[in-house]
């Protein structure tokens, strides 16, 4: 983070040139949108067994995470239409992360590989001004967000680090591999407290939650069981 005392401030905004995901559809508003990219060639040559499956969150959400304080108001946002969290996008100032949203995608299992399609974003939370834009952080292709750690100061979230797990598919069984730390942080680590959160074994994030006002007060993940469903 920049040194306190700077006077010039720029409005918090996601500049397309900064790679902040501008131009992506809102995840909530895109529910029910066409999934053409996910549905091509989903039937085998015999017209029977599907050859493409969609990684699909199912069941009730488990909310996990202990990072930040109790200021602001609670928020919760789910990825829409069967998407899962594949990254986070944020902005930063001297007080912490001033805006944050999740990047969501469909993951299609086809021909032994994992295709990432139909990107969208959740609503943005927090509205404080920032000194500069920071780059979004994405999971490696074919991986999903399953955990995070970060730092806090005075009850505000200062920075986040993502942990993502690869989706494993052998044509019949779906599982998640070992989570690995993703290079690149959102924000700058503080000398205050720290916190983290991890989805239960076998679950992945398909939403985010926490508390926010003018800035991000608390961060959590919304985790779900996962299955493979025909597209």
Task: Please characterize this protein's 3D structure.
- This protein has 231 residues and is mainly β.
- The chain has one domain: Vitelline Membrane Outer Layer Protein I, subunit A (Aligned Prism), CATH 2.100.10.30.
- Helices cover 2% and strands 52% of the residues.
- The protein has 1 helix and 15 strands.
- The strands form 2 sheets. Strands 1, 2, 3, 4, 5, 6, 7, 14 and 15 form a 9-stranded antiparallel beta sheet that branches. Strands 8, 9, 10, 11, 12 and 13 form a 6-stranded antiparallel beta sheet that branches.
- The N and C termini lie far apart (44 Å).
- Mean pLDDT is 82; it is low at 1-23 and 28-48.
Produce a short descriptive summary.
The protein is mainly β and 231 residues long. 2% of the residues lie in helices and 52% in strands.
Q: Note the beta-strand portion.
A: over 45%
Look at the structure and give the mean pLDDT: 82
CATH level-3 fold name: Vitelline Membrane Outer Layer Protein I, subunit A
Gap between N and C termini, in Å?
44 Å
Give the uncertain stretches in residue-range form.
1-23, 28-48
CATH class: Mainly Beta
The appropriate CATH architecture is Aligned Prism
Order of helices and strands: HEEEEEEEEEEEEEEE
What is the tally of helical segments? 1
Number of strands: 15
Inertia-based shape? elongated
Query: How many domains in all?
Result: 1
Biggest β-sheet description:
9 strands, antiparallel
- Classified in CATH, the superfamily is Jacalin-like lectin domain
